[in-house]
Hints:
mainly beta, Jelly Rolls, 22 strands, about 0% helix, eight-stranded mixed beta sheet, 3 helices
Amino acid sequence: xxxxxxxHVRRRMAPFLVGALAIISVAALFxxxxxxxxxxxxxxxxxxxxxxxxxxxTLPAPxxxxxxxxxxxxxxxxYPTGGLEPEYSIWCYTQPSGVTTRVSVGNSWSDxxxxxxxxxxxxxxxxxxxxxxxxxxxxxxxxxxNGTFVNTDHxxxxxxxxxxxxxxxxxxxxxxxxxxxENGTLVFETDAAAGSDAMGGAxxxxxxxxxxxxxxxxxxxxxxxxxxxFGGLAAALGCxxxxxxxxxxxxxxxxxxxxxxxxxxxPADGRVCKDNGGRPGRVWETQGVGIPRTAASVQGxxxxxxxxGTSLHLSDVWRxxxxxxxxxxxxxxxxxxxxxDSIHLFVxxxxxxxxxxxxxxxxxxxxxxxxxxSWFTSTGVRVYDTSWxxxxxxxxxxxxxxxxxxxxxxxxxxxxSFCLGNALPGITRNTCAHTHVPGQPExxxxxxxxxxxxxxxxxxxxxxTSTPVPPTxVPPTxVPxxxxxxxxxxxxxxxxxxxxxxxxxxxxxxxVDTDKLAPQPAAFCRP
Length: 527
């Protein structure tokens, strides 16, 4: 669903001033707007492959008069493309209607996006189209442009900020179905090239979000992240899949349903807020000082973390593509297992971040950090794959996604392109033998794939629990040794000339939000 930006929503689409370690988002007055070398590897994970017919290879010609940026190459796209993927932004191409590839039985969803051999080279992925997805995006002429499509048996998102500002932007794709917890657990898996060379920390990243809300809100509670886009509709939880210089990082957070922003304010922008006891709208976040306030145990989530029961580190299983390397080489499988008081994240089947014992009483605010009871009813929850950028992305960027699975049966699995221990010349390690030939499956058919395929060791997750932590639980007094250290940096935003109005700014430094008022130019104040 394309959402035109009316004035009350434009308050959400705030400019961003970006420093080396700070991101500043600006909204309407008192409002808020729309690896290291691997160690010796002895464990190996099975990969799941299917003999499929590849999507057809003849791409339509781009519109020579396409706007905006019709002849600009995208970040996150390999060049030359070899005729596999669109060379320019998808809005420059004709896109026939797509087909249904998902299988949904009962309380589950499975979609590999493997196209029939008669499928078109580029197909639409539209809101409530044949593929059965909800697609939400912010679209503002002269400001934001987005597109979603299916090509080479996976789906992609193209995004750009064409404004004179530095806007944030997001595209949300969700199965058009609600899901319930099974035996107290919800499982959500997706394949994403979160290690693509186009990704960068909290500026450009992938997200996995869960909420009962079946659409976006007119009001944002946090303009920096996708999971802040459900303000007032329902509580929302999300985990960011961030690529940094040292490798992949997870940051997770949860907002309540009060419609209040990060600091607890209720902006005077037409929203109605609930009384949440004077607490921040953000219940918790696994970053900086928020880590010990989140749960009794927060382990992993950073490249050097030693994976329990193995000789591996997270950097061994979360791949990072080199400059201009094909996205398939770092299109990994991410899995979230969610219970009342725990969140377990996996990469290619291996434990990656373990949050256990979410506090019934947040030691700083008194809020209940656990998953709300309302999520466990027959109404269920929705899952969202979110593509997001902050600070302005004035060159088009392409996000590469693939499989979407909810409550899958069987053991945890890896991305079809992941082969632990495989080494191919000039290619990110742990990538299976494959081809990039138009009209042919990229991954060899079942039974013809070289490389490791043995069963991995059984990994026992120490401390894992689904039993709620009693209200009297005492949190650690310091950030656990396994937590990522976040440097505290003070940066002063660069002033913007020709001011006409002031707007609330949320300056993010080392995971801590500081509210300020920042002047804005006339073009922003009167869009």
